[in-house]
Every structure is written in C-alpha cells, then in structure tokens.
C-alpha cells in the first residue's frame, strides 16, 4: 500500500527526521507534537494547561490536513515530564474529545524536546 506524507503549515514543522503524519490506506499516524506555536516555532507561553491545549491544537491541525479530525483518533499517547499533570490532561482532553474516547496511554518521561512538559502522538482511522 502506498504511503502519503501529510504536511501542513497550521502545525509546527518537523524539528527532526520525521513527517508530521503518514497515511497508509485509511490509517493516519500522527507524529509527536510538543507545544510549539506553528507561526514562530517557539514554545507556547504559559503553564502546563497552555502547553496541553497547544499540543491538542497542533494535533487537530495535522488531523485536518489528513482529511480527518480529533474525533477520528483511535489511539492517543501522552508523554508527561510530571505525572502530577495527569488530571490537567484529563480536564483539557474532555474539551477536545467526546465519548467514546480513543484508547490512550499516559507515560511519565524524564525529558522532552525543547524542555516541553508534554508531547502527544496519535493514530487516526478514516475508514468509517
């Protein structure tokens, strides 16, 4: 099956050797997003809640570029440098997703690129 590379200027450009997303058939693999502002490629200002919102906005932009939305996400991986922020992730996520929610993992990590407090990647299914 052919791979289609998804790109958009509405989300941060890749800061390494990866694509924003790759579509294979009806499945889209969205690369990890950190809270960079697409227009400036600088970290969003504010607390961890602002970072989480920026990450969801970035993922939503890539999802739209692939022909979907966050409602099409079937798996979400969340990486946090402080698991004490888990409740904040849940509260903000409830603003971006409705039940039935995607499968999800939340993983505590020592550090993330650009000293971000959160990074998320996702798998999206457009097949119906």
Could you explain the architecture of this structure?
The structure is a single chain. By secondary structure, the chain is of the alpha+beta class. The chain has one domain (3-125): RutC-like (60s Ribosomal Protein L30, Chain: A, 2-Layer Sandwich). The protein is built from two helices and eight strands. The model has no long low-confidence stretch (mean pLDDT 97).
Order of helices and strands: EEEEEHEHEE
Strand order of the largest sheet: 1-2-3-8-6-7
Give the fraction of residues assigned to helices: 10-25%
The CATH topology annotation reads as 60s Ribosomal Protein L30, Chain: A
Question: What's the architecture, going by CATH?
Answer: 2-Layer Sandwich
Q: Mean pLDDT, rounded to whole units? A: 97
By CATH, the superfamily comes out as RutC-like
Number of strands: 8
User: Given this structure, which CATH class is correct?
Assistant: Alpha Beta
Characterize the overall form: globular
Uncertain residue ranges: none
Quote the distance from N terminus to C terminus.
Answer: 19 Å
Q: In angstroms, what is the radius of gyration?
A: 14 Å
How many domain modules?
1
Main β-sheet: number of strands, strand sense, barrel status?
6 strands, mixed
Discrete helix count:
2
């Amino acid at each position: 099956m052919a791979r289609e590379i998804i790109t958009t200027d509405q989300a941060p450009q890749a800061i390494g050797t990866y694509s924003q997303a790759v579509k294979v058939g009806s499945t889209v693999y969205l690369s990890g997003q950190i809270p960079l502002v697409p227009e400036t490629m600088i970290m969003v200002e504010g607390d961890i809640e602002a970072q989480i919102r920026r990450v969801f906005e970035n993922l939503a932009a890539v999802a739209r570029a692939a022909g979907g939305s966050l409602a099409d996400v079937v798996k979400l991986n969340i990486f946090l440098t402080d698991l004490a922020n888990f409740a904040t992730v849940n509260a903000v996520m409830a603003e971006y997703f409705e039940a039935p929610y995607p499968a999800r993992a939340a993983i505590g990590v020592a550090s993330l690129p650009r000293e971000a407090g959160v990074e998320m990647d996702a798998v999206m299914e457009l097949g119906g």
